[in-house]
Amino acid sequence: MSIRMMPISFVFSRFPPVVRDLASKFGKEVALKTVGEGTELDKGLIEKIADPLTHLVRNSLDHGIEMPEVRVAAGKSAGGTITLKAAHQGGNIVIEVADDGAGLNRDRILAKARERGMNVPDTVSDQEVWQLIFEAGFSTAAAVTDVSGRGVGMDVVKRNIHALGGRVEIDSAPGQGTRISVRLPLTLAILDGLSVSVGGEMFIVPLTYIVESLQPKEADVKTVVGSGRVVHVRGEYLPVVALHETFNLEPQIEEVHKGIVVILEAEGRKTAMFVDALVGQHQVVIKSLESNYRRVQGVSGATIMGDGKVALILDAVAIARAAQPQLLAAA
Amino acid sequence: MTQATANQAAAPTVVQAAMRGNQEFLTFTLGKEEYGIEILKVQEIRGYEAVTRIANSPDFIKGVVNLRGIIVPIVDMRIKFNLGNVEYNEFTVVIILNVSGRVVGMVVDSVSDVIALTGDQIRPAPEFSATFDTTYITGLGTLEERMLILIDIEKLMSGSDMALIDSAAVH
Questions:
Q1: Mean pLDDT of all residues in A242-265
Q2: Which residues in B lie closer than 8 A to residue A287 (C-beta atoms)?
């Protein structure tokens, strides 16, 4: 396993020239500080994280750090600092790109969002406002430069990081700077999963997508327009996706309230996935189905269980998407 | 269960055979028909074991198995060609093939032997009506009273109707 792990300095080491070049181009004074270069992560991740990180660093430099005279006028040192920091936190690696620049401008982001026809109330939390910058085509830069301002980028960054099973968080304070944290799983080769059984087959659901699992009461399972089923969980009506229907299996349990629903959250939407039973929680090694076979709808890979049998790993995003047409038809 | 038909063991004899203008084939039966495939494409022969089914795949794709840590799809040629009795027991044989850089398992009725055919023992395949695809049949081999249908297993397995490879990857 250790051969797959590489220190993040492989990525960090490419930034000093980037920062130097861009800083001189903009006439800004920027120092780059790196912390935790020795933090190790999966080789596959290293390759895929380099582009999103580059984008974040360029963003910080262009939008975050102010011109020297503006900084001095604000009572700060003329030179700004961008800090790249990597650390292990539980089973994750957290990579931070922080700057001591102007911070995100809440009013400007809100104004821009309304200009784009988004319905945003004034009372939204800062966190929610910051998440708006990940929307496609969203840019508050006054002028378009060859570095940024085109409004493509942050949404791609977020999508790429999601594809790696990670999350992006933003902290920002006006006048003090912005910190963007990217949280990634340590390795792409191992996945924490919940095994569920349907019609005698075993499937692995990635734990990161699971909100909770429960057995609904009969009264909480309702139908919409006769066929679309929803389950009422904590005040929300969630569409039900029966896994045996997705995979054409003979279920052991037909009625939702006699089985288990696993609530998945993918792409910001919740879906109740109906299965026969929960089997257990495992750490599984991901094996590719595509190396010898092909892509299978609803399945992201396979793994080998303790007894030598193959179990398929569900693609929670595809399962959640499968629920949406039903929901639309029902609405 | 695994019989020694490793490529390495077969390689020298095949080289010698090639020098004499011979080709070696692994022969297997499907129903009453006897087929031959190029021996170098065969990785190993093993028994049938329980597969993990794959949803929404054609019925001749039985599913996937764990072959020493790699995930291998299993195709049942008896269903694909509509030949023989489709039943699975301890005598069911799976030929593990190495084609186009992929590993694929193929269920057949039985494996007969490895034979060498000289060029004059191989006849071109006759033209059939267009009702079924015969482009993967490379010829008909004769060995005493037996007729062997020689197939280009690589072409067959990578064909689009086998649904083993993403169509995007084929083009």
A1: 85
A2: 69-71
